[in-house]
């Protein structure tokens, strides 16, 4: 049983340092920067769709997509690069940028495999959306944060919900036939909240009047969510992409921390 | 801090009064602003993009009719019939950057033509030196009207000037110096290790906001109430009512809003409903 005197306050409550004008601030950090392999590095990259994978299931799915090309990285100075491999690996704390081979549109993929401190999220969101990278539409894939969610969460009931910018929502009711990207998903419920980089990215899309969707899934480490996300992506976002080869090996899923009945059933064979 | 007007919206020049919350115990200022926005049917007109406010996002903070409407960390609303703007802040400030945030907010208020700023904040009941519950929940205030913090209208409304406001106390002097642009003062910030009881009130976010707004020549009124952390809806209602009285906004002649409209997001304010399947 948690100790009510020492447990971490719920998200709606403050730490003492949040309410103190005279707390010293942390030393400033060097700015993050993009490394891109393109003929004119100073020109922004334009994309019809920018996908930003933040959650473990989405990172796993896109890691196994064969039809992608590495074009650059976002370097966040405070994230150590020691131990990373030459070839992109799921175990690296890296942020790689890829183009996806799609015949109809230019799609960029950002796979962020490390945690970003809350106070750095604003800066990194600026780097990824609207300055060096100019997308027409953004899709962010993240996980429901149990500490910020005011509904019921069950470990064996996977689901996905969405948040959309007003421009994305207006598209779904327009007469031009441009519908919402994830039209079949229900909206994230009122009263719950998402923080961190996913929130910073979607906020930036809203403020810059960019079509943006944040898809949050639950549970965070479950093979069923991998299947759910594959289905959502194939149906709504990347219908021409082959997801059947995008991982799914039980041992590999287990090695990356994924759980699930389908993974564990062999243990009882 | 950048102010971004929402697509299709416009700034109302006649909204010269600004209400905003200061981060405080029980989130009372923020809850009070929620009540004012929903009850006055204030219209969201834009967002404030500040690097010192931590990111957060959600859906449908206020009304069920706008399904899927995003709620961002720092939003600006106008209630044009009342000549009132409101800012809602939903997430904390980056640690150690409260003074910079207060400066940014003051710059925004001046640039957008505000004349009178009302800051809503709560105070920790555990710090209350002279508890007086004889007349119910007491409203305290701090005003820029006079050097000692008093204001005749607030006194007529039966409120008490915050007795712990001592403008010559070192922390209040520090805030005033920094707000007035004294660059030498920046290096003389009081050290946390040396803090005493009298440093508590000027250390709170409302004090930074008060100092910076005042230094810009704006009329500033802080409305304060003591509370403990818990179910703070009644505290928020109290501050919202005080705001309406001060600004003479409301459905009756005494400036009281008869029926507060509860925001949609408050349904799960203190967590989800219990899982009845366990019964």
TrEMBL record, chain A:
It comes from the Eukaryota. This is Proteasome assembly chaperone 1. It comes from Trapa incisa.
Automatic annotation (TrEMBL), chain B:
The keyword Signal does not apply. Keywords: Chaperone. GO terms for biological process: proteasome assembly. GO terms for cellular component: cytosol; nucleus. InterPro entries: Proteasome_assmbl_chaperone_2, Proteasome_assmbl_chp_2_euk, PSMG2_sf. Forms a heterodimer with PSMG1. Chaperone protein which promotes assembly of the 20S proteasome as part of a heterodimer with PSMG1. Belongs to the PSMG2 family. This is Proteasome assembly chaperone 2.
């Amino acid at each position: 049983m948690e100790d009510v005197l020492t447990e971490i306050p719920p998200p709606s409550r403050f730490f003492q340092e949040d309410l103190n004008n005279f707390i010293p601030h942390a030393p400033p950090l060097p700015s993050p920067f993009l490394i891109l392999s393109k003929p004119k590095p100073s020109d922004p990259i334009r994309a019809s769709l920018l996908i930003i994978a933040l959650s473990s299931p989405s990172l796993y799915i896109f890691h196994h997509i064969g039809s992608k090309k590495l074009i650059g990285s976002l370097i966040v100075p405070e994230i150590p690069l020691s131990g990373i491999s030459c070839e992109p690996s799921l175990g690296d704390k890296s942020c790689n940028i890829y183009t996806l081979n799609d015949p109809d549109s230019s799609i960029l993929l950002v796979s962020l495999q490390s945690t970003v401190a809350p106070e750095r999220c604003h800066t990194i969101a600026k780097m990824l959306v609207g300055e060096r990278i100019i997308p027409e539409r953004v899709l962010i894939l993240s996980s429901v944060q149990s500490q910020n969610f005011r509904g019921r969460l069950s470990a064996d009931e996977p689901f996905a919900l969405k948040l959309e910018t007003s421009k994305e929502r207006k598209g779904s009711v327009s007469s031009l036939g441009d519908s919402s990207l994830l039209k079949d998903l229900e909206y994230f419920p009122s009263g719950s909240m998402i923080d961190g980089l996913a929130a910073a990215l979607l906020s930036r899309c809203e403020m810059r009047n960019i079509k943006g969707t944040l898809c949050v899934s639950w549970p965070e480490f479950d093979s069923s969510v991998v299947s759910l996300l594959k289905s959502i992506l194939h149906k709504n976002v990347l219908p021409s992409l082959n997801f059947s080869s995008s991982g799914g090996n039980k041992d590999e899923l287990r090695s990356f921390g994924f759980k699930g009945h389908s993974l564990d059933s062999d243990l009882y064979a | 801090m950048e102010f971004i007007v929402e697509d299709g919206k416009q700034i109302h020049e006649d909204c010269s009064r600004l209400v905003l919350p200061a981060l405080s115990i029980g989130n009372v200022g923020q809850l009070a602003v929620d009540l004012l926005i929903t009850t006055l049917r204030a219209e969201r007109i834009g967002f404030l993009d500040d690097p010192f406010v931590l990111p957060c996002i959600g859906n449908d903070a206020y009304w069920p009719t706008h399904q899927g409407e995003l709620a961002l960390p720092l939003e600006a609303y106008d209630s044009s019939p009342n000549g009132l703007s409101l800012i809602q802040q939903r997430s904390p400030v980056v640690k150690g950057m409260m003074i910079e945030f207060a400066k940014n907010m003051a710059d925004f208020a001046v640039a957008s033509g505000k004349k009178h700023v009302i800051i809503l904040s709560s105070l920790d009941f555990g710090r209350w030196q002279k508890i007086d519950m004889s007349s119910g929940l007491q409203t305290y205030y701090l005003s820029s009207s006079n050097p000692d913090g008093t204001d005749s209208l607030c006194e007529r409304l039966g409120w008490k000037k915050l007795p712990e406001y001592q403008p010559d106390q070192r922390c209040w002097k520090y805030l005033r110096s920094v707000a007035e642009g004294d660059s030498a003062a920046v290096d003389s910030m009081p050290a946390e290790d040396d803090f005493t009881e009298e440093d508590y009130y000027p250390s709170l976010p409302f004090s930074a906001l008060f100092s910076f707004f005042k230094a810009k020549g704006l009329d500033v009124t802080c409305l304060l109430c003591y509370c403990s952390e818990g179910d703070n809806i009644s505290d928020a209602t109290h501050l919202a009512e005080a705001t309406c009285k001060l600004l003479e906004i409301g459905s009756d002649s005494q400036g009281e809003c008869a029926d507060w409209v509860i925001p949609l997001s408050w349904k799960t304010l203190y967590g989800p409903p219990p899982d009845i399947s366990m019964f």
